[in-house]
Amino acid sequence: MKIVLPDFSLIKPDWPGLPANVHAYTTTRKGGVSLAPFDGGHTYNGFNLASHVGDDPVAVARNHQRLNLCLPSPVTFLSQVHGNVASDAAKIFPGHRADACFTSEASVVCAVLTADCLPVLFSDTKGGIVAAAHAGWRGLASGILQMTAQKMRESGAKEIIAWLGPAIGPTQFEVGQDVFDAFSQILKNASAYFRPKQTEHQFETKYLADIYGLARNLLSEVGINQVDGGIYCTVTESDKFYSYRRDGVTGRMASVIWMD
Question: Residue 181: which residues within 8 A CB-CB, separation 6 or more?
Answer without folding.
Answer: none
